[in-house]
Each structure stands twice: as structure tokens, then as C-alpha cells.
Amino acid sequence: MITGRRTRFPMARNAFAELRYNPRRVVAVIVAIMISVGYLTASVTVLAGETKTFERTIIARVSETDVVVTVRTGDRAAQARLAAQVGKVAGVASADLSFLSRGWVSGSSDWVQQQSLPDNPKLRWTDLAEGRWPAGPGDIALGNVTARQLNLGVGDRITITDKNTSATLTVTGLTHQGDSLLSGLTLNSFVAPSFYTAVDSIRTSEQTEILVIGDGTLSRSQLAERVQAVTGGGARVETSGGMVQRLISQRTQGVYVFQLLLLVFGAVALLVGSIMIVNTFLILVAQRRRQIGLLRAVGGRRDHIRRGLLVEATAIGVIGSLLGVGLGVALSAVVAVVLDQTVSVPAGQVAAVAVVGVVIAVLSVLLPARRAAMIAPLEALRTVAGDAIGRRASFVRRAVPPALVVLGLAGIGLGFTGTLFALAYFIGGSFVCAVGLLAATGSYLPPLLRGLGSTLRRTGPTARLATDNTLRNPGRAAATGAALMLAVGLVVALQVGAESMKATADDNLDARYPIDVTVSMLTGPLPAGTVGDVAAISGITDAKGVRSTRVAIKAGGSTKRVLAQGPDAGALTTLWAPRPPITAEAVLADPYLLEDAGIKNGTRLTVTGRSGSVTLPVRGDPLAPTGGLVVAPSVLAALDTDAPLGAVWAKARQGADITALRSQLRTVAEPLTGAEVGGGLTAKLVYHTALDRLLAMSTMLLAVAVLIALVGVGNTLGLSVLERTRESALLRALGLQRRQLRWMLAIEAMLLSLAGAVIGIAAGAFFGWIGAYAVGAELNMANIRFSMSVPQTLGITAVAVVAGILASVLPGRRAAQATPVDALAET
């Protein structure tokens, strides 16, 4: 035999020839890399455009200014004098006051930011999309995204309320706000300067600035120095560029967190893809056993074989990465068109992503290359293909995965003890346990496949053959099942975590907000018809009027005005049983009010109203409104004999559409100046909306990993068809029809998909619950609940099984096309 010590083998040429003459074997690997790299490319490209768009919204307000003066005095006359002084500085062309405030929309819990419209048109950083600019203190122009979220248009009226005052304004126009992914995080609007500066102004500016434009004779830094000399220490003076950098560093954390989330899920997609690549190359090594043995027989060394596979993997990685970059840029261009953005391709990040794709392909082939290098030259003489990847696992390899699972469970158990580093134990334990479960797939997947196939085996020989085929190569089945299990498990873990957090948050919010819906007046009485209007809303099962008055409480020498409400005790018991009725022997107070005032539970509190005063023990109770008290009807009568209707408390139907109900409540409360809508449903909507958005986004991102795993199922079947050509020919010769052969492969795919989905769902449910418990414990939530959406879980299972069956269509057609004679001749 030739030793090959001095023989040169054109391994690179052999590798490229293999790709050229047998492209079907590696198409799925290229597709997996293309999807993974394309996903990451689209992520970094879209985020780059999103970041620029978000930065432009920050820069826009001061883009035409040279210097920004942040005024620290709230005196309007002093602000006007300072602006006049700045305007007289040599080198200043104009100096305009700009006011900024924030208030919530009456009838909802949405907060809107108001900015005064600059008198200088050059400083108006956006254009009108519709209508006109505000001209008086009763006008407002909303951003188009803000208007869409509030369901308002030109001509509609909106009531803006802060802690002291409220104003009902007419929407005169809509401005271009931009439709980026992060649009709407801040609801913004423009108001006329007279909204703040009129003598009878109803609003106070939370932030006042002087926007300075130079005449071009000085640099921005020189101009800032001259303005600073005029303002002294009573204001902060900075160039517009310095202010922009400061604001960007403060406000782009959400963008970075979002980018980190995208990259994490991209890493998951790459992990699933790498599992599939390893599995594919292991199968290819098994199929090319005789070819590799022949190369060894004619002088090829082990390092030749390894280098050949590495060259092949590098070529596949380069091709897949280039296609992925093209796919990702194309997807980001579509997103940019939809969001009306410019495409921004960060060349450095995209190049890094492409390199990662190539590296993943090369690293994934290391194990198969090592297996290939162990093939002996005598394998070239064997006519029956051996199982090159079904080697018997060593004791260490069989013992390590269970040990990791036990170690991970121990870490999770330490987290449940409530130790100082509980969250770290939960995270670390879950990770170690998950790695152990993935590594042990070959131990528990075959028994599951056997169990799932036991029922199908009774349906006929085709099903028996399919079940036996899935069990023939446990290593291949384990690798395919692990990829699908990882992808499905992550989706289920997110869903279970979100549903559990929803259920837990609902329970905690029920305790914090015993009343589902409250409609209250900050000042003045509610119209008598408000109770009937609220009761008539679809989704409200009952509503009761609550009388209220303004009272004074004295404790520890301090006096504070609060709102006291006294509902009918019988009605309260009817609505919120088994809660006991309010008695005349105690005063219920907002727990946060007691904490702020330094009042302990049980302290006797003197409450004084217009008609008299009472002294009763006080008890913190979430039934009391924020900063308020609740007393029995008889106590309220002693405090104020003519207490008017001040609020409506209502109970919502279980499972009512919170969004629709909230919209109807806003319609009722909107005409009532100073009305505030609150209660548990409003708070629940915030949690539900945030969790639903996170879940929807995460599920879409993880769908990439599921897609790659299903491509792996199809690839495994396709390569299995090539490997079993002789077997398929024999079956066809014995009478197996083409449709039976296709059905056999469909059953194999169904079993692999179903087994991977079942294990993924079980593991995902466990880790999702652990994650929800860890987060809930970190947030000091009580009674953390497990919750799981059965329809969503069944939907995931159905998608995995159906997609797996569809993945068998092409391999099935390929296997059924050849006649028995042709197939036997090929082998």
C-alpha cells in the first residue's frame, strides 16, 4: 500500500468537485447558514437604520440651533428677561423660549408630551401632515403616530391633565412623527406658546429652554461662552451638539437592549443551525465511507481527509454567508420601505456576521472530520455501509449529561431557597440543566420514538418500517431531535413565562387594585348620569356611585388634604365578596400615603371635613385610592352631610377585552374635564401589552430557529434517502408502491417532529416556569402562578408535525422516482 508520505493529494480540488457533482447533499446546510446569517444581517441593518431614525428625532428639535440654554427658574417674567438678554449678546441672531411639559390624557392612562411651537419657523423641526399649526392656548397639534394611538384626528378634542390642572384642547393639525419601530415610545404634540405664557395659563412648563441661533461670526463653543457669561450660574449652557450627545446617551438604551435581544435570538438560530450542520456532515461521512477508505488506500493521510472536509465546510460557509448577507440586506430594504426609512448598512457589523457564518460552518465540521479521519483503508473493500456515526458511547459520555442535569436542578433548588444570589442560581442552574438535557437526547429520544411509533406500527408494514428507520440510527435522530427540541422549547418557554407572568401580575394587581374600574374627579362632582353611562359599557357587570369630599388629616403635627370616599357597604360586599364591608370603626388609607406621612397601622387619625371631624384607627388598605381614604357611609355623613358623587367604581366581566373596554371608558370620561380613569384593568393593560409585544417579537425571532430545525428534518430525510438507495430499491422490488414509500418517509418525519416537539414543550414549560418564578421573586411578587396557553401549545405541536411532514415531500418524491432496477444499478 502506498504510504502517501510524499504523495500530494489535491484535497481542495476534491472538495470543490464533491460540491459541484453532489450539490443536493449540502443544499440544506447552505440554506441553514443563509437563514441564520440573513437573520443576523437584517437585525443589525434594521437596528442601524432604527438607531439613526431615533437619533434624528432627538437631534431634530435642536438641529437648527447653535446653543441651548436650559433655564432653571420657573418665574415666567425672569425667563422672558433672560431670553431678551441672550438675544442681545453679540453673535446671536435669535433667541427663542421653548417650553416642555407632560400630562395624561383624560379618560386613559396615556401620557403626552407637549412642546411649545417655536415662533421662528426655522426651529420647527417637523412638517405638518394635515391641518394647521396651533395658534391659541386652546389648540394642539399631535404627532401622527400619537394621534393614531389615541384614535384622534383633526377637529377632535382632547383633555390633558396633570396633578394640578387640566385643559381641553382642539386638535388643529397632525405632524410627521416618523413610523419607526420605537415610534410612540413618547407621545408628543405641539401647543402654542400662549398655552404657557398667557396670564391665565392653566399649565406650567416642566422644562424651559432658550434656543439660540448664531449669526455665523462665532463658533458654537465661542457663542456658548458668551451666553454663559450673560446667564451666570442660573442656567445650563451647552452647544446643540453637546446636548444631542447627552440626550442620545440617556435615551438610546432601549435601542441597545433591543439590539442585544435580537443578537441573542440570532445566536440561538446559529446554535440550531450548527447542530444541523454537524448532523449533516456526520451523515455525509457515513455515506462517503467507501470513498474516504479508497483515498486512504491510495496514500491519503488522516490530515488530508480532515483538511478536505474543512475546505468543503469553508466553501459552504462562504456561499451560505454571502447569500445570507444578500438576503438580510434585501429584508432590511423592505423594512425600510415599510417604515419610510433610509437603508443603513453597517459594513463592519455585516462583515463580522458573514465571518461568524463561515466560522460556525468550520467549527461544526470538526467532529465529523475527526470521525472521517478514523476511517480505515479497508473500508473501501466493504460493500455494505456501516454505521459510521452510531458508535457506542463511552461511560464518561453517558455519565456526564445526567450529572449536568442533576447539577442544574440543584442550582435551581438553591434559587428556590431565596438565597442572596437566587436569580444567579436560577439562571446558572437552568443553563446547566438545559445543556445536560440536550447532551442526553440520545438516551431518551429513542424510547420516546419507540413509544410514539408503537401505535402506528399496528396500522401496517409501512408504519413499522418508518418506526424502525427512526430507531436505526440513534445518533442521527438525536441530533435532529435536539435541534427541533431547542427551537420549540425556547418558543414554549417564552410563552409559558409570559402567561405565568400575566397570571401572577393579575393576581398581584387584583390585590393592589381591588376595583376593576374607577372613574374619579380630581376637582368637583361627577354628573349623576355617569354611573349609568359606565354601567352601560359592554364588559361592565355592575357599577356603583361613590360619594366623596375633601378632608384634612392631622398626624404628627402635619396637615394634608386628601380625598375621602364612602361607598355603600352592602353594595361593596356584593361586588367584591368575600371582602368584609367597611365599618364605622376604622379608616382605610392608601398604604403609600401612610408610608409617606410616617403613620403606622392602628394609629388613631383625626379626619376633619366641612360638617365635622372623627378620630378613628387607620389601616392601610389598597381599596383606598392613591393618596386617599375610604370610610363607611355613616362616617362620610359625619364629615360632610352634602358630599357629592365623586367617583364610580365598577366591576368588569371575567375575560373582558381590556382594550375595547378602556376605549369605551375613555368615550364616557373624555367630556368630563378633570376626570381620571383608573383601577386594576388599566394597570393590567400595561403589563399585558408589554408582555404580548415582547412575546410576539420573541416568537417571530425564534421562528427562524424553528425554520432551520425543520430544514434539518428535511435534510436528514433527504440524505437518508441517498444513503438507503439500495434498501429502497429492494423494498420496491418486493412490492412496496411509490405512495407507500413516500408515506413511510412522511411517518418518519412526523415521528421525529412530534418527538422533538413533545420534549421541547415539556422542557420549555419547565424552564418557562422557572424563568417566571425567578423574575417574579426578583420583583417581590406574591403567589407566583404557573400558566400555560393550551391552544398556543397545541398550535406549536401542529405546526412542527405538519411542517415535518411537508419536509418529507421532496425526499419522498426523489426516492419514489427511481425504478427498482435503476436504483439497484446505481448502487
UniProtKB/TrEMBL annotation:
Bilayer topology term: Multi-pass membrane protein
One matching Pfam family: FtsX
Domain ABC3 transporter permease C-terminal: start-end pairs: 264-373, 700-819
Principal cellular location given in the protein's record: membrane
InterPro entries: ABC3_permease_C, Macrolide_Exporter_MacB
Transmembrane region(s): 26-48, 256-286, 309-338, 350-369, 399-416, 422-445, 477-498, 694-722, 743-770, 790-810
The protein, known as: FtsX-like permease family protein
Organism encoding this protein: Nonomuraea maheshkhaliensis
